[in-house]
Design goal:
This protein has about 150 residues and is α/β, with parallel strands linked by helices. It is built from 5 helices and 8 strands. It has a 5-stranded parallel β-sheet with strand order 2-3-4-1-8, sandwiched between helices. It has a 3-stranded antiparallel β-sheet with strand order 5-6-7, with no helix packed on it.
C-alpha cells in the first residue's frame, strides 16, 4: 500500500468517527502537501489552500477581534464547498500574528462540521506539535490530544 492509500484509510476512519482532525507530519520536503493533494484528487475531497480563507471580510474586522470571528467566517467559506472532508494546506498562513487566530481552537471548531485534514508545518517534540518561524517571531505549541497523527516517511 502506498502512502496516499494509507492516508486515505486514516481519513476515512476519522470521517467515520465524526469530528476528527488528521494531522499529517513529516520533515520539510517529505511530501506532505503532495500526499494531501493526491488523496484529495483520488477521493474528490475538498482541497483548500489556507490563503483562500483570508477573505476581504476577515481582513475588514479590527485585528484584535479577528480571532473571535475567524472560525465562523472560515466555516462559511468551507461550507460553500459542500464537503464532508476538508484538506487544509499551508496551515502556517493562519499563524501570522496580525491575524490573531488561535489555530488549535479554529481547527477544533471546524472539525465539528467537517473532517479536517492538514499538514503540520513544524515538528513534534515531547508529544506536542510545534512551529517556530525562522526569525523567532512565532512560536506555536499545540497539544495533539484528540487528533489522529499520520506521518509521511
Amino acid at each position: 500500500m502506498d502512502q496516499v492509500e494509507e492516508l486515505v484509510k486514516v481519513i476515512e476512519q476519522a470521517q467515520a468517527d465524526k469530528g476528527n482532525i488528521v494531522i499529517v507530519t513529516g520533515k520539510p520536503g517529505s511530501g506532505k502537501s503532495k500526499v494531501l493533494r493526491e488523496a484529495a484528487r483520488m477521493k474528490k475531497w475538498t482541497y483548500v489552500d489556507c490563503r483562500m480563507l483570508i477573505s476581504e471580510e476577515f481582513l475588514s474586522i479590527p485585528a484584535a477581534d479577528r480571532g473571535l470571528y475567524a472560525s465562523d467566517l472560515m466555516a462559511t467559506i468551507l461550507e460553500s464547498y459542500n464537503a464532508d472532508v476538508v484538506i487544509l494546506d499551508r496551515l502556517q498562513t493562519l499563524f501570522v500574528p496580525v491575524f490573531h487566530i488561535n489555530v488549535d481552537s479554529l481547527i477544533r471548531k471546524l472539525s465539528k462540521k467537517f473532517t479536517i485534514v492538514t499538514a503540520w508545518p513544524g515538528y513534534q517534540k515531547n508529544g506536542t506539535l510545534c512551529y517556530d518561524k525562522f526569525d523567532g517571531t512565532e512560536a506555536i505549541r499545540i497539544s495533539p490530544d484528540g487528533f489522529k497523527i499520520w506521518n509521511v516517511d
